[in-house]
Write a structure and sequence with these properties.
Arc Repressor Mutant, subunit A; five-stranded mixed sheet; about 10% strand
C-alpha cells in the first residue's frame, strides 16, 4: 500500500505515467539493472533513459527512508501515550523529513532541559499567564510561585523559569519553525573567518579566499561550500550560516507578541532567548546540512560526469603497443604488449642522461624493440619527463608508429594493487605501472576499471562528500559505461565482467574459470553452463556480452537472445540468410516493422534491432586522435602573457576546468574565462580530453599557477596592452602565434 502511494507521488513529481513508474519499480524490485531496463525493456518503461530510471530508484529509496522514520516516530509517540488519530494522520501525510521532525519535536524524549526543570518547579501556570499577555501584574503573579524548597527564592527566579518554558514552546511551534526555516533558506549567509594567528597563516594559503568571506547560502557555489567546510574541519576557519538576527526575531515577535505591557516585555525576552539559544542553532545545523548535501550532490555529479568521459575515451583497439613511463634520473621504463595486451618484454632506457652514449643507446633500444615486436603505437605517460620523452621518441627512426601522450593518474595505484600483483607476480611496480599506461591507450575502459575511480585525479572534493552516495553514483556510471560499450566475454578480465548487468565479482570469476577450463565460448547459449549463472543472470547479462567470430553472428551484436526469433523471421520474410541482413543500412526502408510487433516486443525494440543489424557490435566511443602541444613551449618558464596555445582538458569542476598545455603544470580556465557569454555549468560546454585553444592571461612561476582564457576578445585586449608597454621593440616574440597576434 505504501509503495503504491510512493509510486503515485513519483509519477506526479516527475510528470510520468503511473503505470510506467510502477513497471520500472517492479523491474527494479525483481533485480533488473538500470542498463537492462533502459536498453531491453523500453516497451514497459516508455523508453525511459538511465537518468530517469536512476532518479526513480533514488527517489523511491528516499521515500522508503522517510517511511521508516515515520514508523519510528509513531512508535515513540505511542509509547509515550501521546498518539492520537489526528496526529497519526498528520505524520503519515508529511512529505519532508524537516517538517516531520518539527511535528515530532514536542513529543521527542529530551534531556533535562531548562524548561523541564522549570516545569518541575511548578512554573508552567506562570508561563501561561505571561503567554496570554493580559494586564495582570506580573510580579504579583510571580510572587505566588516563590518556593525556596524548589529553588525559587525570588520573583525574578520565577519569571526566568517561566521564560525558559516559553522559549521551548516557541522553539517547538511548527509555524515559527516554518517561517524561520524559510528565512534561513532565502536570507542566510555563510560567513567565514580565519582563526589562526598571523604566524600560522602561511600554512593555510590554500584557504586565503575564505579568511574573510561572505556567501549567500542559497546560491553559494558547491566548491566554495565544501572548501569552507573543509577549512572548518581543519580548524583553520570559523564558519557560520545565519541570517540577520533582528529579522529573525521580528518574525517570531509578529507571531507571538500582542501587547505592550510587562508580560509582553517578558515575551520579547523569551522570543530572543528562544531564537538565540534554541531555534537558530537547530536551523543553522539544518541549513548547513542542506547546503552540504546540495554541494555534495553537485560535486558527485561533476565527478561522475568526468569519470564517464574518461571511461568512454576513444580506444586505440587491438594493436601491438609500446608503453613508456618517463623519468629523468631513474630512466624510462619500457614495455611491449601484443594485441591482446599481454606483456612481451620490459626494459629501461636513459634518454635524458647527460652522456650522449646513454641517450643514443636508449634510442637504439626503442627502435629495436619496435621492430622486433612490430609495434604500431607508443603510449607515453604525461607526467614527469613526459614532454621530453615524447620529443625524444618522435625524433627516432620508427616509421609507421604513432606516438600518444597518455594520462597516467592512478597508474601507480594500480601497480601496487592486489589486481596488479595477481596479473604480474614476477614483475615490480614500475613494470606494472608502465603496462597500465600502454593498456590505457588500447582500451581506457578496461584498464581504468582496475583502480578506485577516486584515484584517477578528476573532480572536486570527492574525499569530502558522503562516501556511500559517491560509491552508488560511481557504481552507476561504471555499470552504465561498461554496458553501453559491451564486453567481449572471451577477452575480458574479471574486473570488467563484474560490472556487466546481472554479473557480480563471483559470477565474473566463475565465467573466467569456466573459459580457462573449457576454452572460448562459441555461443551465448554456452554461457548458461557457467556454475551459478541462472536464468535471471543470463537474461540481464546476455545482451551486453559479445562473442566475436562465434557460430551465430547475432552473438557479436547487442541484439538480445530473447529477440533472435524476430530476426530469424525477418530474414525468412526477406528470403535471405541471417548473414545477408548484417550490415544492411537500408533495412528500415525495406521492412514494415508493425508486422513484427508482439505483446512483449514493440516498435522501440524493433528499431533498436534494425539499427544494430545495420552496424552490428559497433563501439559507441569515438575514434582516437593524436594531439600535438606547441613544440617550443615545454616548461612554465617558456610562457608569456598573451600567448595562444593548444591544450587538452584534464579536469572539470564547478569553477572551471584545468588544461594541460604541455608545461607539466595544468592551467586554470576559470568559469569566467570560458566564453564571452555567461557560463553556469562548465560541464555543459567542456569535456574531459577535449582539445582547446587557450590564451595565457597570467603566470605565477613561483607558485606554479597559470591562468588561461578562451574568450574571443582577450587576444585583442592583450595586443593593446603589449603595444602600450612598447613590448614590440623591447623583446622579439618567441612564438609564431604571438607574433601573428601582435601584427
Amino acid at each position: 500500500m505504501k509503495q503504491t502511494q510512493n509510486i503515485l507521488s513519483i509519477s506526479k513529481e516527475y510528470n510520468l505515467e503511473q503505470n510506467r513508474v510502477k513497471a520500472v519499480v517492479e523491474l527494479l524490485n525483481d533485480g533488473a539493472t538500470i542498463p537492462f531496463i533502459a536498453r531491453y525493456r523500453k516497451e514497459v518503461s516508455g523508453s525511459m533513459d538511465e537518468v530517469f530510471i536512476t532518479s526513480i530508484r533514488d527517489r523511491l529509496n528516499q521515500m522508503e527512508e522517510l517511511d521508516l522514520r515515520k514508523k519510528t516516530i509513531l512508535k515513540s509517540i505511542e509509547k509515550n501515550g501521546h498518539l492520537t488519530d489526528q496526529l497519526k494522520e498528520k505524520i503519515e501525510n508529511t512529505s519532508t523529513l524537516a517538517v516531520l521532525e518539527d511535528i515530532y519535536l514536542p513529543y521527542k524524549p529530551k534531556k533535562r532541559t531548562k524548561a523541564a526543570i522549570a516545569k518541575e518547579q511548578g512554573l508552567l501556570p506562570l508561563a501561561k499567564i505571561i503567554l496570554e499577555q493580559d494586564k495582570k501584574d506580573l510580579h504579583t503573579s510571580a510572587s505566588l510561585f516563590i518556593n525556596e524548597e524548589k529553588g525559587i527564592v525570588s520573583e525574578e527566579d520565577a519569571i526566568a523559569g517561566a521564560r525558559n518554558i516559553i522559549a521551548e514552546i516557541i522553539n517547538e511551534d511548527e509555524e515559527v519553525r516554518k517561517a524561520i526555516r524559510s528565512l534561513f533558506e532565502t536570507k542566510a549567509y555563510f560567513t567565514s573567518k580565519i582563526i589562526l594567528s598571523k604566524k600560522e597563516e602561511e600554512k593555510s594559503q590554500k584557504y586565503k579566499d575564505y579568511f574573510d568571506s561572505t556567501d549567500p547560502v542559497s546560491s553559494a557555489p558547491s566548491h566554495r561550500v565544501l572548501a569552507m567546510l573543509r577549512g572548518e574541519k581543519e580548524n583553520i576557519l570559523k564558519l557560520t550560516a545565519i541570517p540577520d538576527e533582528k529579522k529573525a526575531v521580528s518574525i517570531i515577535e509578529s507571531i507571538y507578541i500582542s501587547g505592550q505591557g510587562q508580560n509582553s516585555c517578558e515575551m520579547k525576552k523569551a522570543v530572543s532567548d528562544s531564537y538565540k539559544r534554541l531555534i537558530s542553532k537547530s536551523m543553522e545545523n539544518e541549513i548547513r546540512t542542506s547546503a552540504k548535501k546540495k554541494a555534495e550532490t553537485e560535486a558527485i555529479n561533476i565527478f561522475t560526469q568526468n569519470i564517464r568521459q574518461l571511461l568512454l575515451a576513444p580506444p586505440l583497439g587491438q594493436k601491438n603497443v609500446m608503453g613508456i613511463d618517463p623519468g629523468f634520473r631513474t630512466g624510462c621504463k619500457v614495455v611491449c604488449l601484443n594485441k591482446q595486451g599481454r606483456l612481451l618484454c620490459n626494459d629501461t632506457v636513459f634518454p635524458h642522461n647527460n652522456q650522449e652514449s646513454e641517450r643514443a643507446k636508449g634510442g637504439k633500444k626503442i627502435e629495436e624493440l619496435c621492430k622486433k615486436y612490430s609495434i604500431e603505437a607508443i603510449a607515453i605517460g604525461n607526467k614527469t619527463a613526459g614532454r621530453e620523452t615524447e620529443l625524444f621518441v618522435k625524433n627516432l627512426n620508427i616509421p609507421a608508429v604513432t606516438v600518444y601522450s597518455v594520462e597516467e593518474n592512478g597508474a601507480s595505484i594500480y601497480s601496487a594493487s592486489k589486481i596488479a600483483r595477481e596479473e604480474f607476480p614476477d614483475h615490480d611496480i614500475t613494470v606494472r605501472g608502465t603496462v597500465s599506461i600502454a593498456r590505457r591507450l588500447m582500451d581506457p575502459l578496461s584498464e581504468l576499471l582496475k583502480i578506485d575511480p577516486k584515484s584517477i585525479g578528476v573532480g572536486q572534493y570527492q574525499h569530502d562528500v558522503d562516501q556511500k552516495n559517491l560509491k552508488t553514483a560511481l557504481d552507476d556510471v561504471v555499470s552504465s559505461c561498461v554496458n553501453k560499450v559491451g564486453v567481449d566475454i572471451n577477452l575480458s578480465s574479471v574486473q570488467l565482467l563484474s560490472h556487466v548487468s546481472g554479473i557480480g565479482p563471483k559470477l565474473a570469476q566463475n565465467i573466467v574459470a569456466f573459459k580457462n577450463e573449457n576454452g572460448p565460448f562459441k555461443t551465448r547459449t554456452n554461457i548458461k553452463k557457467v556454475p551459478r549463472l541462472g536464468p535471471k543472470a543470463f537474461e540481464q547479462a546476455a545482451g551486453f556480452l559479445r562473442i566475436n567470430n562465434g557460430k551465430n553472428p547475432l552473438d557479436s551484436s547487442s541484439v538480445h537472445p530473447e529477440s533472435y526469433n524476430i530476426v530469424y523471421k525477418i530474414a525468412k520474410d526477406q528470403n535471405c540468410d541471417l548473414t545477408d541482413l548484417i550490415g544492411k543500412t537500408d533495412l528500415k526502408s525495406r521492412i514494415n516493422l508493425t508486422e513484427y510487433v508482439t505483446d512483449t516486443i514493440g516498435l522501440p525494440t524493433l528499431n533498436d534491432i534494425l539499427d544494430e543489424l545495420a552496424k552490428p557490435g559497433r563501439d559507441p566511443r569515438k575514434k582516437i586522435e593524436t594531439f600535438e602541444f606547441a613544440e617550443e613551449i615545454n616548461k612554465i618558464e617558456d610562457l608569456q602573457e598573451g600567448i595562444t596555445l593548444p591544450g587538452i582538458i584534464t579536469n572539470i569542476t564547478a569553477f572551471g576546468a584545468f588544461v594541460d598545455i604541455g608545461v607539466h603544470t595544468d592551467g586554470l580556465l576559470h568559469i569566467s574565462q570560458i566564453s564571452n557569454n555567461f557560463v553556469k555549468d562548465p560541464a555543459k560546454i567542456l569535456k574531459i580530453n577535449q582539445k582547446v585553444n587557450v590564451t595565457v592571461i597570467k603566470v605565477e612561476k613561483q607558485r606554479k599557477r597559470i591562468s588561461l582564457s578562451m574568450k574571443k576578445e582577450y587576444g585583442k585586449k592583450i595586443k593593446k596592452k603589449i603595444k602600450s608597454e612598447n613590448c614590440l621593440t623591447k623583446k622579439k616574440p618567441f612564438n609564431s602565434q604571438l607574433a601573428d597576434l601582435l601584427k
